[in-house]
Amino acid sequence: MVFEDFASAQSFFLWATFFVALVMGAVVNKTNFCTMGAVSDAVNMGDTSRMRAWFLAIAVAMLGVVVLETAGIVDVTASFPPYRSSELIWVENLLGGILFGIGMTLASGCGNKTLIRIGAGNIKSIMVLLIIGVIAYFMVNPFPGSDQTLMSVLFFDWIRPLSVSLKSPQDLGALIDPEHVQRTRMAVGGFIAAVILFIVFISKEFRSSFDNILGGLVVGLSVLAGWYISGALINIDTGESTLNLAGYWNEWDMLVDTEEGKPAELRSLSTQSFTFINPMGQTYGYAMNGFASTYLTFGLMALFGVIAGSFLWSVITRSFRIEWFASFKDFFNHVIGAVLMGFGGVLAVGCTIGQGITGVSTLALGSMIALAGIIFGSAMTMKIQLYKMMYEDASFMAAFITGLVDLRLLPKGMRKLEGI
User: What would the pLDDT profile of 106-140 be if each residue is shown by its tens digit?
Assistant: First the structure.
């Protein structure tokens, strides 16, 4: 679509994002699509239906990116966040993913689920959002009157030297065959997506589950829509040429006589799709800057849209319920979980949606590492909680080692507690 001015183009960009997120929020609420729930079902009950829905979303998004890139419609290499960066921050991806997985288990849901729960009336999740927002903001933005961030104070000096500088982007296509990158991306992405789809639909139980299929399809298509909206859909006619939003921002001084209406950051106009930890940080910046329209971003509109969609479905189905903390322990768990998600989400460069679906759809190695970390962190936390509940006198290490045995990461002979 070609617009005559930047304001109209940006407005369409933001509202299109909001609409897609609205639909996703409503469908996620309706189908109970939940990544933490998926891990819980698989670990505690052996039910993989919701896990299959999650991986269906991954396959749909991955296939979509393959098609869009092969057709030359969208290029996700220069995305925000930079999933395909040649700097592989694998320790940050792994550690952040583990912290995030632990946090989402303690706080009863990942970033996306937090927004869904807010829309459904859960006040606990509002507190989680606020805590994550403050931490995520100061992880990447300096403290007032300082040039230091939480990242630079706590992590950067020891964790960034562990990163690996690659000679190519970190996606599997570029790593496998740097000479024929796009062709390899198509082959690898198509193959992985096909394998995932086969594994997902081999289950007769899953094939008969309308909600799980719907949830996976809609979330995957929403991520794909985000890539398309931000990377290809919107252009502006300058009279001499046609520019996308980011290109117009770069030429702003030559095209416009005033700074009025210019977005605060270029990266907010980059090719991107759904992720929720960074946008939670953006909500803090948006509020601190007086809710100025120049601080409205794709991420913020996605966040607002998911909450609105969940609220709309809750009202339609009369399932809207105010929920508060059941006990001090419940409050404490949510606070700790929110803190861990704030730190972990930024370190991992995304959440269960941002890295687990959006990032993985780009075939980025770091995204796959983060996804593995998230699943491990969540599964391990659930195992420890289960064994500590069943064996009140058991030590943390006994529960931890037994959990690793259950997850087949240690031999059976190392089991400390009887299986449940």
Answer: 999 999 999 999 999 999 999 999 999 999 999 99
Would you kindly state where each structural domain of the chain is located, as residue ranges? 2-414
Distance CA 343, CA 113 (A): 17
Q: Which helix (H) or strand (E) holds 333?
A: helix 328-348
Measure CA 278 to chain center.
9
CA 264 to chain centre: 23
Report how far residue 258's alpha carbon sits from residue 294's, in angstroms, rounded to the nearest whole number.
13
- For residue 88, the Cα-to-chain-centroid distance in whole angstroms is 18
The predicted model scores a pTM of 0.96
Residue 142 DSSP symbol: P
User: Hey, what are 49's tokens?
Assistant: 């239906």
CA distance 214 to 192: 21
Angle at 107 between CA 36 and CA 300, to 5 degrees: 85
- Cβ contact 191:199 at 8 Å: no
User: Alpha-carbon distance 294 to 401, whole Å?
Assistant: 50
The answer to whether residues 249 and 269 touch, using CB atoms and an 8 Å cutoff, is yes
Residue 32 CA to residue 40 CA, distance in Å, equals 13
Give the tens place of pLDDT for each residue, 308-327. Answer: 999 999 999 999 999 999 99
